[in-house]
């Protein structure tokens, strides 16, 4: 969603990438200028997004610029935004008026990330299986963090791209083995709908681990934080933590394969979010790739598609937000 025209696209702009846990803010002096003054603010430290924006501007010693683009982990439908995985709720028009922005663009965070994909450098990516990406072919994007983001790019027929805006992380997820389905049944009973996001996110790691304890007959299942589960798998090869990571990767592969089939993503299946890059080589050896390709008669079709883990140190969604001011 945008407010006002793009007549101020050359002016200074505030950029933001807002997730369920952290909000990343940055400054861009003008169109095409370097993105600077990047700071990460924990969302839980601020009562509202307006408070977080004000705190950032105070930190960098600047007043609100004419233009602002905010990529946020939420669908943008109408004026009111209520975050799915955080308590912030706000009116876009009121936020614009509060800071005096002449131009304010709001878009889904994974739509912003998708806009940044064509500019990623080779060293910012790690390929996990598949062949070479086809130029000008659809691109899929999926990523697990606080939630599960999904987007993609479709060629516009003129050498450019059209980004997807959707909530594909909330598709219904099914298991491919009895053990997987038993885990999903337990998680689904807790939440009511077994979406891909319920398994493929930080809380999903916690819930998978709890479900495995229940299936293994642990008398009193005890929650373990996502970071502890990851450490248990990577550092100690603790069996239940390792199985949790394998199941997480398998579920992500199932969802990624569904997306790749839907889009015909011969331009590549990009994997963003904060969890997978932390898994490193453990992810490459996980069931992800097998499950992504496990689509019966279309296994060979999917096997040709490269999967690419995004390793960029600076949030690419900030670049996508900057692009959105001019192009989206």
UniProtKB/TrEMBL annotation:
Its EC number is 2.7.1.2. Keywords: ATP-binding, Cytoplasm, Glycolysis, Kinase, Nucleotide-binding, Transferase. One of its GO terms (molecular function) is glucokinase activity. It comes from the Bacteria. Pfam families: Glucokinase. It is an enzyme of class 2 (transferase). It catalyses: D-glucose + ATP = D-glucose 6-phosphate + ADP + H(+). InterPro entries: ATPase_NBD, Bacterial_glucokinase, Glucokinase. PANTHER family: GLUCOKINASE. Belongs to the bacterial glucokinase family. This is Glucokinase.
């Amino acid at each position: 969603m945008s407010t006002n025209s793009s007549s101020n696209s050359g002016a200074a702009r505030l950029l933001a990438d807002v997730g369920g846990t952290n909000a990343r803010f940055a400054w861009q002096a003008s169109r095409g200028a370097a993105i600077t003054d990047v700071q990460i603010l924990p969302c839980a430290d601020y009562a509202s997004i307006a408070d977080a924006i004000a705190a950032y501007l105070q930190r960098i010693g600047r007043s609100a610029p004419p233009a602002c683009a905010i990529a946020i982990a939420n669908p943008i439908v109408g004026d009111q935004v209520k975050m799915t995985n955080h308590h912030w709720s706000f009116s876009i028009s009121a936020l614009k008026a509060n800071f005096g922005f002449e131009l304010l663009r709001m878009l889904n965070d994974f739509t912003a990330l998708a806009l940044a994909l064509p500019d990623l450098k080779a060293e910012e990516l790690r390929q996990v299986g598949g062949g070479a990406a086809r130029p000008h072919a659809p691109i899929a994007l999926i990523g697990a963090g606080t939630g599960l983001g999904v987007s993609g790019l479709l060629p516009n027929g003129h050498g450019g791209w059209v980004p997807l805006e959707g909530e594909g992380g909330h598709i219904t997820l099914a298991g491919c083995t009895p053990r997987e389905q038993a885990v999903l049944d337990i998680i689904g009973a807790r939440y009511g709908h077994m979406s891909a996001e319920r398994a493929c996110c930080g809380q999903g790691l916690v819930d998978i681990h709890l479900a495995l304890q229940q299936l293994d007959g642990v008398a009193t299942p005890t929650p373990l934080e996502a970071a502890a589960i990851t450490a248990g798998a990577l550092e100690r090869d603790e069996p239940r933590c390792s199985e949790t990571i394998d199941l997480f990767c398998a579920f992500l592969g199932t969802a990624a394969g569904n997306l790749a089939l839907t889009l015909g993503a011969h331009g590549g299946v990009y994997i963003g979010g904060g969890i997978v890059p932390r898994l490193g080589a453990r992810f490459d050896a996980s069931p992800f790739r097998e499950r992504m390709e496990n689509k019966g008669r279309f296994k060979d079709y999917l096997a040709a598609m490269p999967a690419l883990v995004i390793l960029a140190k600076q949030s690419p969604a900030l670049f996508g937000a900057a692009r959105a001011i001019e192009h989206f």
